[in-house]
Design brief:
alpha/beta; Four Helix Bundle (Hemerythrin (Met), subunit A); Rossmann fold; seven-stranded mixed beta sheet; 469 residues; 16 helices
Length: 469
């Protein structure tokens, strides 16, 4: 790691009452003295003038000095809190650069904190997630991870894995002696306990991942089925243009909303029909791409096409309702997977003498949720909301850890290896094979906290941070 001095404006661009310039490096007391005329006392706010090389006052504000190692980065850290005007902050930044600092890369302050052992990788990622949180629940989840709750759970499981590895490897070393260091039944019970703990962490992490990443919900269907009306009803805004003219929507229209603190990325699409219009054909192509990558597909169907649907859709009616998807996705290898992600929304029930309802209809051994709603008057929207939450097993995220896809992948890998070790112990397989499974499980958990990592991974993670953080 480079130990040169870095600086960055830590407040957002624009006009504001306060602006913060952050500096981190070695031996910053001299720089502080050059800027303020005095050497600030550690961790004590100093109200002073910030001066240029010629002694002219650039700004007046507060200087805070945090000597290493008792700082965020583990290095000397100097923060200058002045007025928030762009010109003032740029003048201060140029002065600090002239004193030997360089402009920090995005996330470099947090990266140095990680490399200097002040935080682990999970906590570093939680900083960015806390900044990006778009709901109170997401912010609480990120803060829970930032304060070390997630890391402590991982470390606890890692400690248990270490104990089991020691026992197994000791048994290997003493296999030719009469010393009994490993009880097979005890090993199995310990591995079962490990799996139970990993399952608990995984579920809390999955809830956190939903908070962090959200789910993509694509509204698809024939033209004039009411997709745009449903988009407006779910978002609570007049986001999409609604007319009686089929084919009004030509492009993807996206809106991020919160559904009981669960982030959804709603995507309205062009009606699925064949058209000679070049623009509409492009819209349909983009709709197909959105459908293929969606977490949930809401296939919006005009209920007036099924006037007898009050008692549910029969198999032939269900097949007819699915035709828009079948026609455009019939060549997809993962057709069954796409259909399992599909919920049929029978819209416009206000045109028929039927009530809102949610049910399951089976076709070709695939259960399709069918929800009857009216996007026009809002009836049945509570049932649709309940389905979306049920589909992703949303539990509210009260105890969730903010998590990312790489965390879930590592937890799944650790669980697979622990399961393999448990199965091998039941089969009385060679202890060397069990020891290797436990080693791989521990390595997977180490990737979460950064004990096992690579420069490429660090570069990818920290490059997405804000400059100055």
């Amino acid at each position: 790691m480079s130990n040169d001095t870095i600086c960055a404006i830590a407040t957002a661009p624009g006009r504001g009452s306060i602006g913060v310039l952050r500096v981190s490096g070695e031996n910053l007391a001299g720089m502080a003295r050059s800027l303020t005329g005095v050497e600030p006392e550690p961790r004590r706010a100093l109200f002073c003038d910030f001066r240029g090389e010629d002694g002219a006052i650039l700004d007046r504000g507060i200087a805070l000095f945090f000597p290493a190692p008792n700082s965020f980065t583990g290095e000397d850290v100097l923060e200058l809190q002045g007025h928030g005007g762009r010109v003032v902050l740029e003048s201060l930044r140029e002065r600090v650069l002239a004193l030997g600092a360089r402009q920090a890369r995005p996330g470099e302050f947090s990266e140095r904190a990680f490399l200097n052992g002040k935080i682990d990788l999970v906590q570093a990622e939680a900083i960015a997630d806390l900044i990006d949180a778009d709901s109170r629940q997401a912010a609480r989840s990120a803060l829970r991870t930032l304060t070390g709750d997630f890391s402590q759970r991982i470390q606890s499981v890692t400690a248990l894995l270490t104990q089991q590895r020691v026992l197994v490897e000791s048994a290997i070393d003493f296999s030719d002696s009469d010393i009994k260091v490993l009880q097979t039944e005890q090993l199995r019970q310990s591995l079962a306990d490990l799996l139970e703990r990993l399952d608990g962490i995984r579920e809390r992490s999955r809830q956190g991942a939903l908070l962090n990443q959200g789910i993509s919900v694509v509204l698809a269907g024939l033209p004039n089925a009411g997709k745009s009306s449903l988009m407006n009803r779910l978002s609570g805004q007049q986001t999409a243009i609604v007319t009686e003219i089929p084919g009004t929507t030509r492009d993807l229209l996206s809106q991020r909303i919160l559904l009981d603190d669960l982030p959804l990325q709603l995507i309205d699409t062009a009606g699925l029909r064949r058209s000679g219009d070049v623009i509409e054909r492009e819209g349909v192509r983009r709709a197909r791409e959105a459908i293929e990558s969606a977490d949930v597909i809401l296939l919006v169907v005009d209920a007036s096409l099924f006037p007898d649907c009050a008692q549910g859709l029969a198999a032939n009616e269900l097949r007819h309702a699915l035709e828009p998807l079948e026609d455009f996705l019939k060549d997809q290898e993962d057709r069954a997977d796409l259909l399992q992600r599909t919920c049929i929304v029978l819209n416009k029930i206000d045109l028929l003498p039927i009530a809102p309802a949610a049910e399951q209809a089976n076709l070709d051994d695939i259960d399709h949720p069918v929800v009857r709603v009216s996007a026009k008057n809002g009836s049945g929207m509570d049932l649709l909301t309940a389905h979306l939450k049920q589909f992703v097993a949303w539990e509210g995220g009260e105890d969730a850890f903010v998590a990312r896809a790489r965390h879930l992948e590592a937890l799944d890998e650790a669980r697979r290896q622990c399961r393999a070790a448990l199965d091998k112990s039941a089969e009385q397989a060679a202890l060397e094979l069990i020891a290797e499974d436990l080693r791989l499980a521990q390595t997977a958990l180490g990737r979460i906290t950064g004990e096992v990592t690579s420069d490429d991974l660090l570069g990818e993670i920290f490059s997405k941070f804000c400059i100055g953080k």
